[in-house]
Every structure is written in structure tokens, then in C-alpha cells.
Amino acid sequence: MTRIAGRFTRVEPRRRVRQLVLGLLSDLPRKNCWTIAEWAGQTTPDGMQHLLGRAKWDADQVRDDVREYVMEHLHDDQAVLVVDETGDVKKGTHTVGVQRQYTGTAGRIENAQVAVYLVYAGQRGHAAVDRELYVPRSWTADPDRCQAAGLGENTAFATKPELATRMITRFLDVGHHASWVAGDEVYGGNPKLRTALEERGTGYVLAVACSHEVTTGAGKFRADTLAKKVPKRAWQKLSAGPGAKGHRFYNWAVIDLPDPRAGSRQLLIRRNRSTGELAYYRCYSPASVPLTVLVRVAGSRWRVEEFFQSGKGLAALDEHQVRRYISWSRWVTLAMLAHAFLAVIRADEHTRPAPDALIPLTCNEIQRLFITLVVRPVHDAAHRLGWSVWRRRHQARSQASHYRRQATQAKIGSVKRAV
Fold first, then answer.
1. Which of 32, 72, 389, 405 is the most buried (most CB within 10 A)?
2. Domain that holds residue 400
3. Is the pLDDT assigned to residue 183 strictly greater than 90?
């Protein structure tokens, strides 16, 4: 918290942001301005809502602080930048960026808000270092709607690969280095993103669809067509990295792609040893690298899934109940900071030998110990009863407002019918 304290010119928001971050790390079943304010001992959620919506501070500057914190503690010369998006299912149409769209969170098309994240994955651990909200065309084509949600009326549409390029460029432009970038088919199928990485000399292993076409010395072929031509002796059994149940072994094959430009380009193919299911990757590196390196980078992509799971489960990354862009950016940035704290503590703990018959501390266990032993607040009955009264009063006002609106709409409808 000392690292970001300078972003807040007044002591009140500085203290409140600390309470909010601790609340994000708490064991509350649901985390929002109401529950965190009660947990922190405040009498109403007004202060927390002010911090997210109206207080003067720049979430992008705090995002930069989070990035520097992660780089200081998790730096790795062979780290991988992983890009991926996640969706938060929402109700209504007023939450910034929301529309009916596919989200992997639900596994289907839902009314959702989608954001793209950049995760730094090294040997010591992984944490998010940047985020961008995906704003669909249905929003950017409506300047009034954008302005009402806190977006600039000149907000331009950007695809998810364009958002990923923006974040990777921001990371590299401040002087940080990453040898590799990994991502799924959304990013691998985008030639502009691949070209941007090649121009900066950054290697990548990006998934592509089975229908993706590549050019070989014998002509242009679909990826799945080339996979059928791979001889049996070309497949190698290699681990994509450790998982919850041990190493994740697959069969791998690689096909060199001739190109007059500098650098080494390949099509990497992964085959599931049980089902035979195939996956395909476009690869680039400034210099030729062994197959084991490409496999390691491909396996690193799953670190972003681990971030989404722990970021949402431990730091409430997806529990923001806000509508405007400024509140969204502030909430997710502080959630990234909370998760990064857990990741850094975990990395430090893993440098020490664990006692016999114990695994090293996990982020989940660190969160439990930290909240239980260090910061669990204790409040008396009067505080709890006061919050009960506040909630019921707020709900009564909301209910009366709904009834008034319904009555007004009914009166307007009857007048129109009479006319």
C-alpha cells in the first residue's frame, strides 16, 4: 500500500483504498461496496462508492505501480506474457461494455462484459500487469451511451487482438523485456498482432484454428491437412508443464515454415495422448529454438486461466457491481493489486524448503492465514444492527422509487390511450 500511496493526495482516500484492498482479500462470501464497507467498520458504503466513482486518483497510474511491483518480485528472463479475455455475466444494458456476446465464463452467449488481461508468467509465479475493457461496436456507434457510461464520446472500436497489442506495447515501451507472448486462437489468428510482435523481436506461440492456412515449401495448406502428413517418428512426448495432478504430457510435432524475412517460424502441433485431439500454434522466434522451448511457452498459456480462477475467487476480480468505466477500471486494478500481493508472498514462500509432509503455501492458504491472523476486524452488535437498519432503509427507498416510476408510466399510458 505504501507503493501506491503517492497516487492519493488526501489521507481519506489513502486510508479507504487500503480498507478496500483488504476487503478484496477478505473471506466475505460476496464482495462489493456494501459488504466491504460493513466489514471495514464504516457506517455506510458512501465512502467506498466515492472512492471508486468520484475521488480524484488515476487508476492507470496504480496499474503501472502494480506492473512494477510484479516485475520487481517475479522477474524472469524467460517469462511469458499471456493475453486472454474473460467475461462477467451482467443484467441490464447500462453497465459499460455490456452486450449479448460469447463468454468462456458461461460457455455460451450471454449478456456480459468482457475484458482482456495481460499476465506476466515466470518461474516464480504469475500475476496480471495490465487490463483493457472490450467495448463492442454497439457501444462505440452510440456516443451518447458511451458518454453516459464514462467513456469518451470519441471512443473508437478496438478488437481484442488490438487491445492485446496495446497492452504488450505499453509493457515493452517502459523498458521491460519479455522473450515470449502466448495466447489462444483469437490472438493467433490475427496477422497484425503477429506482425507487431515480430517487428519488436518478441517471440510468440499463439494458438490458431485447424482451418488456419500456412505456407510451406510445397505450397499453402490448412493446419489440419499438414498434421495428417506428419510421420509417426516426428512426434515427441513432452510435458507442457506441471498441473494439479502432475505433468501434462502430450505428443508434439513441429513443421518449419520457410520465410524470406529474418527469424524462425514454425507450425507447432499438439496431440492429446488419450483422445487424439489436435491443437495448432503459430510460432516465431528471432533465432531458432528447440522444440522443448516452444512447448514450454505453449504450456504457459494456462497460467492466465489460473489467474482468472484465483483473481476471481480470492480477490473479487469479477464482483464489481459498477456501471461506469472509471469505477470498473479502479475496481479491477485494485483486485489485480490484491492478487499480485498473494502471488508475491507465494513466490517468496516457495524459496524456502517446506516442512516434511507439507506442500508449500498456496495463494488460497496465504489468504486464509493473512486475514485470520493479521487483519480480521471485530465489530460489536451495534455496528451490525446499524448496517441492518441502513440496508432496510435503502431498500425501502428503492422500492418506493420503483412504485412511483410504475405509477407514472401507467398514468402516461392511460393519457396516450385517451388521446
1. 32
2. 380-419
3. yes
Kindly give, in sequence order, each residue whose CB lies less than 8 Å from that of residue 155, ignoring residues fewer than 6 positions away: 135, 139, 140, 143, 146
Q: 324 with 388, same domain?
A: no
Q: Which amino acid would we find at residue 286?
A: P
- Residue 353 DSSP code: P
Residue 82 maps to a domain: yes
Average pLDDT over residues 203-231: 95
SS (H, E, C) 81-137: EEEEEEEEECCCCCCCCCEEEEECCCCEEEEEEEEEEEEEECCCCEEEEEEEECCCH
Residue 387 pLDDT level (bands cut at 50, 70, 90)? low
Residue 209 or 105, more confident: 209
3-state helix, strand, coil in the chain (%, to 5): 45, 20, 30
pTM of the model: 0.89
Q: What are the CA-CA distances from residue 241 to residues 208, 247, 295, 299, 304 (Å)?
A: 20, 6, 9, 6, 14
Q: What was the pLDDT predicted at 378?
A: 63
Whether 330 has a pLDDT exceeding 70, the answer reads yes
Query: Which residues are paired to 397 by β-bridges?
Result: none
In a domain, 9, yes or no: no
Measured between alpha carbons, how far is 49 from 327 in angstroms, rounded to an integer? 9
DSSP structure class, residue 43: S
Q: Is residue 17 part of a domain?
A: no
* Closest by CA position to 196, among listed 163, 158, 221: 163
Which cell is 232 given? 509417426
- The CA–CA distances, whole Å, from 418 to 406, 407, 413 equal 18, 17, 9
Summarize pLDDT for 222-273 with one digit per residue, the tens.
999 999 999 999 999 999 988 767 889 999 999 999 999 999 999 999 999 9
